[in-house]
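Subject: sequence -> C-alpha cells, single chain

Hey, anyone have a minute? Need the predicted structure for the following. Not urgent.
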Amino acid sequence: MKSFIEDIKKEMVPKIKLTFEKGQKVLSILLNRIDFQLTRTLRILLEQQEKLKQYLINRDKLLKEINRKEQEVNQLREKINELSNDHNSRELDLLRNELSSKLDDLISSQRSYYELEQKIEDKQKNINKLTQDKQRLEQDRNLIRSKYDEAKSKLKENENRTSQLEIEIKELREQALIYEQRLKESKTKEEIERYETLLAELQNNYEEKINEESRLREENKHYRKEYQELEKSLLLKITELSKLSGELNQANILLEENKKEKDLIKSQLHIKENELKKSNNQIGALEKKIEQLRQLEKNYLEMYETSVAETQNANKLLTELQETFTKDLIEYDELLKELEYELVDKQNEISIIKADKGEAVVLTEEEKAVLEREYEPRFVLLYKDCKFYPEFFSDFFQVTSSDRLKIEAAIAQLNYHYPLAISRIRQNTIQTKKKNILEYPFGTDSVGRIYFSKENNVIHIYRISRTKNGRGNLTQDNVIQWLKRKL
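Reply:
Had a minute. Here:
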C-alpha cells in the first residue's frame, strides 16, 4: 500500500507542476504582448497628435487668409454695387449667377454634413455595441477567473489533506505493528483481549483514512480537469478581450476624426450662409444704386477678380492640405512601423558595436525613469523567486532593447524552470570572499552573462556582462573584478 501511494505521488505531482508552469508561461507571454502593444500604440498616437497639431495650425492660417480675402471680396462687391447703374446690368447678372453658384455649393456642403452626421451616428452605435461586448467579456473573464481561483484553492486544500492522510496512515501502520508485537507478548487473557480490541479500532481507523484518501484523490482528478479547462477558457477570454479593446480603440479614433471633420464642415456652412445673406443684401442694394463711373467700376472689377482668384487659390490650398493630411494619415502608420523597425535594427547594431568597444548606452533621465517604471515593478511581480540588486538594473538599462528581451527570457527560465536551466549554467564558478557566483549565458552569441547565486531557494541576480573583451564596465573582466571586490 505504501509503495502504491508513493508511486501515485511521484507520477502525479510532476504532471500537476508541469501543467501549472505551462499555464503561467502562456499567461506571462500574453500579458507581456498586450503590454508591448499598448506601449507602441501610445507612442504612435502621440506622434500623430503632434502632426495633427501642425495640420490644425496650417489650416487655421489658411482659414484666416480665406476670411481676409472674402472680406476684401465683399468690400469690393459693395463698391461695385455702389458704382453700378442701369447699363451695368450685365455685371449685376454675373453677381447673381455667382450667388446661385454659392447657393449650389451651400446645398452640396449641407448634404455632406448630413451624410457625415449619419456616419458618426452609425460609428457611435458600433462603439456602444463594442463597449457592451467588452463589458460582457470582462464579466465572463472575471467569472472564469473566480472559478479558476476556487478550483486552484480546492485542489491545493485536497493535496494538503492527502499529504496529512499519508502521514496519519503511516503512523497507524507503525502503531499497529507495536500492538501486534505486544499481542504476541501478552500472557493474560485480559491483555490479549485489550490489544485485539485496540488493533480492531486501529484497523477501522486505517480503513477510514484509506477511504478518505481515495475519495480525495478522485476529487483531485475532477478538480485538475476543471482547473485545466478553466485555464484554457481564461486564456481564450483574455485573447478575445485584447482583440476587442483594439477594435474599440480604433473605432474611437475614427469617430474623433469624423467629429472634427463635421465641426469643420459646420464652420464652413456657417460662413457660406453668412455670405449668402450678405450677397442677397448686396444685390438688393445694387438694384437701387447703379450710378457710378464705368472706369472706376472697371478698376474695382479687376480688383474684385484678383481677390476672388486669391480666395480660390487659398481654398484650393486648403483642400490640398486636407487631402495631403488625409493621405499622410493613411500612409503614416505603415511608414512609422517601417522606420521604427529600421531604427531598432540600427540602434541594436550600433549599441552592439559600442558594447564591443566598451561604450555604454547613454540614457536621458526621462528615458531612465521610463525604463525604471516599466521593468522594476514588473520584474518584482513576475519573478518572485528572484532578488534583483540595483547594479543589475543599472547594467540592464545600458544594453540594447533586443538584449533586454533576451535577458528577461533567461531570467524567466531561471525563475520558473530552474531544473531545466541548470544544463546551461557554466560549470566554472566565480569565487568571491563569501559566495560562489554562477554564470548564465544569454544571446545568440552566448557571450553575454548573467551573474547570480542561489541561496535558500532564492535566486540573487547581481550583474550583467555583454562582451568578453574590450573597454567599458560591461566586459566580463570588469564585472568579475567588481564581484570579487563587493561580494
